[in-house]
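task queued by scheduler; priority normal; single chain, no ligands, no partner chains; default sampling; output format set to structure tokens
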Amino acid sequence: MVPNRNKSLRVNQNVNKTENYEEAYHRSLEDPEGFWAEVGDVVDWYKPWDKVLDNSAQPLTDWFVGGEINACYNAVDRHIKSGKGKKVALIHDSPVTESVAKITYDDLYEKVSLLAGALVNLGVVKGDRILIYMPLIPEAIISMLATVRIGAVHSVVFGGFAARELCARINHATPKVIIAANCGIEPNKIVRYKDILNTALDRVTEKPKHCIIYQRPNMEPSPLTPGIDILWSDALSTAKHHPCVPVEANHPLYILYTSGTTDKPKGIVRPTGGHIATLCWTMSCIYGMTEDDVWWTASDMGWVVGHSYICYGPLCAGITSVMYEGKPDRTPDPGQYFRVIQDHKVNGLFTAPTALRVIRREDPVLEFGSKYNTTSLRTLFVAGEHCDHETLTWAGKVLNVPVLNHWWQTETGHSITATCLGFGHNLKPPMFSAGMPFPGYDVRILKEDGSPCQLMELGRIVVKLPLPPGVMSCLYKAPERFLNTYFNNFIGYYDTMDAGYTDENGYIYVTARDDDVINVAGHRLSTSALEDVILSHPDVGDAAVFGVPETTKGEIPLCLYIKNKNCSKKEEDINDEIVQNVRDLIGPIASFHSCAPVQGLPRTRSGKTARKSLSNLASGKKVIISSTIEDPSVYLDIKQVLQKLGYAKNAPDPEIEK
């Protein structure tokens, strides 16, 4: 259900559809060969493609068929050959180690080409898999680039994943070599990656030939396992620089497992050529970056955002990319985002809305943030989850820049919808929208029976085939699951499994993951629409809405929220005001009656809310806490709060995944 308030936000004319955008978008759909051939030219090729598009086996689509390319060459070597070797490629800002390191393209070449040589010495050849298990440090990117330099395929596992999930990924990818750091550093604790890796390797069915272990400076080194472990420093010291190995455009660049896939790993396979060409182009087309700019994506290498926009996008475009190893608020204070912008003169920032909500909650009057000069920043981009209007408005005000929401998925690797600076889009798109469809994406909104939805009617968001370059090519070792998951529900379309709607001007509004839509007596309610209303309350800093069982209506929404810092209002008054606001702005059809404050909410490290686990807990089901959850301790407080509300009566205590 679309909240009534959105109808007043629609505009009479589409100020976002510039002539440049219209021409590019329609050409991408009507003349894909000509359009994408021009995009392909933004990167360097060893051999030109024979055919831009092979769509003969739809839904499988190959792009730049027969072309030969290397991602590492485009991210490193070509910049050195053009005289930019002394330019800073990576800035690693690590408040957890109180250090800042700047790595030039020359530095990258030296370390990447040596590590590539070390991998070859260990018997790695084109097509072999390399699993990377590291925190957000330059060595993670060096490992990725060294892998693809020799035509191997990397699979980065989020640093700190539990042994069970790590084991599942090792068993599925069967890497010849694992590259790991000895530890990661979190506020007030050290995460022993090597111990987790050892536990995982004790359980795997097929062990890797070798593990290269990077011992972090100034940290207690981890003991090595004789016969399998090799020190990073030793591997590089005995290696020779290795040249780039050309691969066909559709050769896999990487396998990336989506979170929560322990029992049945879902490995997204990314083709090389179309992906790096599209990413390189989006740096200017979407984000408005030039080669003289500094770009910061506040994410992790274990997520698709890190792959696309910490590593391959900015580096292929020759831009300086910031890696921030810290938290929005606890390393050591909520002023760190402002400090990083000031210290490194950041021009564009991409982050998850959760980080902004945390900063707003912990530093509402900018006691910490106001200490820093952020005038270098031109634009703030958000994605990864729904961004409520209150947070978006606050961020734009305190940073004095446009805040632009855009929408994409692990499967796509880049934006499905966006406000594109390179096309001259209006920087004030309609409230709640995720922008316009990006070139190559023919976005439709369908009902369950496959018929089109009306304007402003909530439905399933799908994309008419063929999909553009750079999206996933398949699921690793699961071709039938690939077809069944994404293409069999709506024949001729890619099923995003997200819910949303469109207005008369073509703006796309993404309201929730389709399984986050709450069905109240047959009426479909978007969790994000409810959360938008709740987060507009001045005393609410964060919130999560999820469905709980109800005997008559099947399920009804319940809200858990976090009060803003220094809030003095009574809990009962806040609750009454929240319920009334929802009734006024959504209507009684929402059947919204229950809300309560909690100490914290279960968020993954990528910023997503674990709503399903909250719904399961409220229903009395057993909850296994994924190792992706930032703070597992929040569940015990949440369980007590739910029990006071009459839910989770017989629910066992949630258990942390091991």
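post-processing summary
- The two ends are 39 Å apart (CA to CA).
- Confidence is low (pLDDT under 50) at residues 1-14.
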